[in-house]
Write a structure and sequence with these properties.
The structure holds 3 protein chains of 3 kinds. By secondary structure, chain B is of the alpha+beta class. Chain B contains 8 helices and 22 strands. Chain B has helices at 42-50, 92-102, 107-120, 136-149, 166-183, 194-200, 218-223, 228-233; strands spanning 4-13, 16-26, 31-35, 57-62, 65-66, 77-80, 154-158, 186-191, 203-208, 211-216, 240-246, 253-254, 260-261, 275-280, 285-287, 295-304, 308-315, 326-328, 335-340, 350-355, 361-364, 370-373. In chain B, strand 7 (154-158), helix 5 and strand 8 (186-191) form a beta-alpha-beta unit. Classes of the chains: A mainly alpha, B alpha+beta, C mainly alpha.
């Protein structure tokens, strides 16, 4: 944490941290504290009077079936995105770690979706699943499933899960591959000499040794699914049909920015803050153990 | 060119005092080596001279000017670091030239000085290389070159050879010595290696636990160590220490295992009955015929080095006990004898020994300070 | 691997090829769609081989844009995206490297407070403070401006921590050597620390450029004037046209254009990208 050798200057360090501090205070800390404050207030219908209502906004939210539904949608969505993303990432990483020829090429061909914006990923899959023209919808129809995400909530949810996962697989792939390559080959060889076959070696040696990476990715993917997938949904289903794809972040945007319900939106923001703080804390507890400060 | 003065220099970190007051006057052109075990404060002292550590108390002057409050660059010093501290992204030339550039030295002069130093250090063809393309010895030379081009009043060396392999270390040691002779620049050199210290120094500062135990020429330090610490630290294999007691009336000295030796003509009258430590170097224990023996060694281990043979053991009569008086030299509780050539001594032998007259050191048991020569 | 079983090698390649196909399929379809005339994409089965309208379609979107979405040229949106992504990447790097320098190389009152304040930003993504942040930006008159698009996003705990981590590995002796050579804090930073940070800066730049380019919610919040739309959010206006079928050939051309710069950066600077990604997560 400390350098033994430091410079002395009465003013310079403050000037150096000033820009970062100013932006942090103006655009992060102040708005966040505003959200906290407003979550305790209620405005009348015309925005003329505000009054302090304590935790009433929160109580209302937790009693609101729409909000609870959104919570449920978010959970299903993020668990599905996290697990399918991790599974595919791990599968490809294990395979890429095995190949001798062409490993670099596979790597290049598998990582680029990381650079695709979630919104664009959403639009791509939306097009593929488009009930009129989409090739996947056509294929599904030919095997007897009538796909229509504009009407069917489950179809819509699957669509956004697929799009969000597709973008994230490359990230998981990269980290799993790095984790696999960090496992000493001598361990695998020792297990092979002990008579363990490939599958057994994977589950008894490789997978446990990967667990720090897996745990790290678990948290990162949850954060991604919770917060960074707004674009996927906003650009495609707009939370519908009905409320089938209204995840929490979409709802806070919709209620606050479109619906202008200040108190409720602020309370939702505070709940989201609590979630992201919890996830970040978990991640940092873990990093503390992993990285020597 | 400059002399260095330190008076009552102390260093404290918080409440912990690590340097307890050093006084020394270093003449212009002198090569001073600060030697001591790790943690003795030798590097801290050097860094205070460099201006990299503040001086808590006392005064340091360079060329008659008190430098306590001056920045390193204002002190007219140059420093060679342990890990060389070469700027990895700069070429050899730029590494050497960096200080001069900051000092706004004219371009032609920078080039002239760097090329001169490169010639001196045989780095001629390497000026465009990056440090990572150099060998350890070459990096070491670049670090020296960086110091030389500044033409400072004082060179400071912080264990500059400790990262080199043994062979290179000997070679660079000689080169440093030659270079310093040629340039005549006052030098302060820190090392934990006593051979490096003995071979390089005009004068040594032997440090232990923040105190300068002795400041003197290498030979004086070797021949007349002021304390048991200095006696044990300088010389290899290390000096043997035996617990003894001066006889009644100041005559003779009783040693562990019941042996006694005469006072060899020294006047010990003021030390009657005093518990003392007798220091004797391994080469000053001489194998003799049984009849002449003053001390007999039960040999436990023999090391054959070629030029000489080392026999380790305990005084006869004190074999069983580790604390029976042989305070140890190389190994705790063991006395080491250096025998010339391929001596025929074997493990289990009883080796009759005489203590060389005029080469024995008597220290106070309590304070470790020198009392007398025998 | 340890043993040599040919069928395992086959399976490995098969799975990887499957992965590559899965990943590339949407891109291929998008590209194919962007090369066909609009009427081919209104009903029936979508073609799987490229058509002959590549240049026409791209010329259309880059020039006048889609009439149905109000006619913002995609060229302009790409320009806006580029400005935003570059400002964010450069801004984040600049303010992070100087604050990391202050935090690591100076000891000053409130140093830890600064550190933790920066840390807190990790836990406050735009998504959890949408409305109040919008209000601040509106009050500062930064709506519909490049400043509004980029400045509020350039605080970066991740980048600051990355530089801090890196600075801590720079040997102290180097700093001391520089001090003995007469370099003050400014020269040390410019002559020694910055050049040593080159690879880190480059790796971070790749990651942050992508981060800036794929922003969606933020431009959605702070732009109402179409001339400040970025391509990633602009495409949404094209697909949600109220009274008409999306013009898929043009939407997909736009999607391809929206993917092109960041994907090109990843492919061209793969090793820097991987380094950046792995380092920023430490």
């Amino acid at each position: 944490m400390y350098k033994r050798v430091t410079f002395r200057d009465p003013l310079l360090p403050y000037l150096l941290v000033l820009p970062q501090m100013a932006i942090t205070l103006i655009f992060f800390i102040w708005p966040a504290s505003q959200a906290l404050y407003q979550s305790l207030l209620r405005q009348d219908a015309f925005g003329l009077r505000t009054q302090f209502v304590g935790l009433e906004n929160f109580a209302r939210l937790l009693g609101d079936p729409l909000y609870l539904n959104s919570f449920q949608v978010t959970l299903v969505f993020s668990l599905a995105v996290t697990f399918s993303g991790l599974a595919f990432g791990l599968l490809f990483a294990v395979m890429a770690d095995r190949v001798i020829k062409g490993a670099a090429t596979y790597k290049t061909l598998l990582i680029w979706p990381y650079a695709v914006a979630p919104a664009i990923a959403g639009v791509l899959w939306w097009f593929l699943f488009n009930p009129t023209i989409g090739i996947l919808a056509y294929l599904l129809r030919s095997i007897g499933y009538d796909w229509n995400h504009a009407v069917d909530g489950t179809d819509a949810l699957i669509l956004v899960i697929v799009a969000a996962t597709w973008k994230q697989v490359s990230y998981n792939f990269l980290f799993f591959l790095a984790g696999l390559q960090a496992i000493p080959k001598s361990l695998i060889e020792a297990a092979a000499i002990d008579g363990a076959g490939p599958a057994r070696r994977f589950w008894t040696i490789v997978f446990p040794l990967l667990s720090p990476t897996t745990f790290f990715l678990l948290v990162v993917n949850m954060v991604y699914a919770f917060f960074e997938t707004f674009g996927v949904i906003h650009a495609t289903t707009s939370g519908g049909p009905g409320q089938a794809t209204t995840i929490l972040v979409y709802k806070v945007f919709n209620d606050g920015f479109i619906g202008l319900d200040l108190g409720s939106s602020a309370a939702q923001s505070v709940i989201l803050m609590a979630i992201v703080i919890t996830l970040t804390m978990i991640q940092f507890r873990f990093i503390e153990r992993r990285v020597q400060y | 060119m400059a002399e260095i003065g330190m008076s009552a220099v102390k260093k404290r970190y918080g409440d912990t005092e690590v340097i307890h007051g050093i006084d020394v006057a270093i003449a212009d052109g002198e090569f001073i080596v600060i030697v001591g075990p790790s943690g003795c404060g030798k590097s801290t002292l050097l860094r205070m001279v460099a201006g990299l550590e503040t001086v808590t108390e006392g005064e340091i002057s360079i060329g008659g000017r008190v430098v306590n409050r001056l920045e390193p660059k204002e002190r007219d010093i140059a420093m060679v670091f342990q890990n060389y501290a070469l700027y990895p992204h700069m070429s050899v030339f730029d590494n050497m030239a960096y200080g001069l550039k900051i000092a706004r030295t004219p371009k032609q002069e920078i080039r002239a000085r760097v090329e001169e130093a490169a010639r001196l250090l045989e780095l001629d063809g390497l000026l465009e290389r990056k440090p990572r393309q150099l060998s350890g010895g070459q990096r070491q030379r670049v670090a020296m070159g960086r110091a030389i081009v500044r033409q400072p009043a004082v060179f400071l060396f912080d264990e500059p050879l400790s990262n080199l392999d043994a062979k290179l270390r000997v070679q660079m040691r000689l080169e440093i010595k030659q270079l310093q002779r040629k340039l005549g620049t006052t030098s302060l050199y820190v090392t934990h290696d006593q051979i490096e210290a003995m071979t390089l120094a005009d004068r040594l500062i032997v440090m232990n636990q923040g105190v300068a135990e002795q400041i003197d020429t290498p030979m004086a330090v070797y021949e007349r160590p002021e304390t048991t610490f200095v006696a044990g630290f300088i010389g290899s294999p290390a000096m043997n220490f035996l617990a003894g007691r001066v006889g009644a009336g100041g005559h003779g000295l009783s040693l562990p295992g019941g042996a006694t030796i005469t006072d060899k003509g020294a006047d010990l009258s003021g030390l009657a009955e005093r518990p003392v430590t007798l220091g004797v170097r391994p080469e000053h224990l001489i194998a003799v015929a049984e009849a002449e023996a003053e001390l007999r060694l039960a040999v436990e281990l023999v090391e054959t080095l070629g030029a000489d043979t080392l026999a380790h053991g305990r005084p006869v009569g004190a074999e069983g006990a580790d604390d029976a008086g042989a305070l140890g030299g190389e190994a705790p509780g063991l006395i080491t004898v250096r025998l010339p050539g391929l001596a025929t001594v074997r493990e289990g032998d009883r080796l009759p020994l005489r203590l060389a007259e005029g080469e024995l050191h008597l220290f106070d048991r309590e304070s470790g300070r020198r009392l007398a020569d025998l | 691997m340890v043993e040599n079983r040919p069928w395992m090698t086959w399976i490995t390649h098969l799975v990887l090829l499957g992965g590559v196909l899965l990943v590339a399929f949407p891109l291929w379809v998008a590209f194919v769609a962007s090369t066909h005339p609009g009427q081919n994409l209104l009903s029936g089965v979508m073609p799987l081989l490229p058509g002959d309208r590549l240049f026409e379609n791209y010329a259309t979107v880059l020039g006048v844009g889609l009439k149905a979405s109000g006619g913002v040229p995609v060229g302009l949106m790409m320009m806006n995206s580029t400005v935003m992504a570059l400002s964010i990447a450069v801004g984040k790097i600049v303010i992070s490297i100087v604050s990391a320098y202050a935090i690591v190389y100076f000891r000053f009152p409130f140093r830890m407070l600064c550190f933790w304040t920066i840390f807190v930003t990790l836990m406050l993504p735009v998504e959890v403070r949408i409305l109040p942040t919008f209000e601040v930006v509106a009050d500062l008159g930064m709506l519909n401006s490049y400043a509004g698009l980029s400045i509020p996003l350039i605080a970066s705990a991740t980048a600051t921590f990355l530089f801090r981590q890196f600075f801590l590995t720079v040997p102290d002796e180097l700093t001391e050597a520089a001090r003995v050579d007469g370099a003050g804090p400014f020269r040390f930073f410019v002559d020694i620390l910055l050049p040593l940070s080159r690879t880190n800066i480059a790796a971070l730049f790749v990651i942050l450029f992508i981060y800036g380019w794929i922003q969606y919610l933020w431009p959605l919040l702070v732009t109402t004037d179409e001339s400040f739309y970025t391509i990633v959010m602009g495409i949404q206006r094209m697909v949600t046209v109220a009274d008409a079928q999306p013009q898929w050939h043009l939407v997909m051309a736009t999607a391809v254009l929206a993917m092109l710069p960041p994907v090109a950066v990843v492919v061209a600077m793969q090793s820097l990208f991987v380094k950046g990604l792995v380092e920023t997560e430490k």
